[in-house]
Amino acid sequence: MGFRVRLAPLLEAGRHHWWSAARPAEIAEELNALLRDPEVRAIIAHDGGQTALGYLDLIDVEAIRVDPKPILGYSDISLLHLVLYARTGLVGFHADLATPGLGGHWQTAPAARRAELAKLYSTLLTATEPIGALPTSPSWECWRPGRAEGRLIGGVINRIVLAQATPYALPLDWFDGAVLFWEEMGGLASYVWSYLHVLRHGGILDRISGMVVGVPHAIDGLDSAGASPTLAEIVLDVLGDRDIPVLGNVEFGHAGPNLPMPVGIRVALDAQRRSLSLLEPVVRPATAPGPSTE
């Protein structure tokens, strides 16, 4: 994509602490160094994991306000997107991770798809004009027809639930008119049903104007022969009579490769036409030297 790439110290071979590359304070220190470095214009997460909750309170949010730069990733990185959007307005990209995504799913995709994604990511990271409609595919499904416009907010659904349980939760009124996007990986279908009910009890489902659901990955109890529900059935069961458009099976999530979903950008959703359009640019012109991607 034409970017200069540097590897962060956390990627040194052999570094680990329990299930992570380092202790939360060490991760925060190195992340903050990247946030303060004017030559670093974007940060791409190597992988997800189970660590972001440990350093949410250690991130230098003032550095982000002074020099906002996109952070790319999904899974555990969803916590960063949601919390940093709530605290600073930073637009994070729910997008492919470096190793399982760019180095994995992309490499097994057809050449035409890789080229399409590379152009899309590059344009989103550099263009100062709205990109418009994201590229669609026959896999997209209309689960409930309708149209909506609003801020795109979401991520991995279990991380949305976790983020809303922290002091850095998005204010409830930020969901007014929002288009909620989410995906999930692992666990049971009943967990997804429960997470959606958490969002219902929290009032979020009463405020959003639309929903976009990614491709589920490795979820037990979906689409099995017999009594198991489909993901669409679970979603519509929890939504009840809330008459909002729902677009399903959109190509983002752990199954990869991912269409980038920028948190906080205004979008237009037309579920029946199976379209999702970005109505605003994702980045603004950089004033620091670059481009460099860490």
From TrEMBL:
Pfam families xref list: Peptidase_S66, Peptidase_S66C
Record's keyword annotation contains Protease: yes
GO molecular function: carboxypeptidase activity
LD-carboxypeptidase N-terminal domain mapped to chain residues: 1-95
Residues annotated as catalytic: S75, E183, H254
Keyword list, A-Z: Carboxypeptidase, Hydrolase, Protease
Sequence ranges assigned to domain LD-carboxypeptidase C-terminal in this UniProt record: 149-269
Family the entry assigns: Belongs to the peptidase S66 family.
Family matches, as PANTHER family: MURAMOYLTETRAPEPTIDE CARBOXYPEPTIDASE
Record protein name field: Muramoyltetrapeptide carboxypeptidase
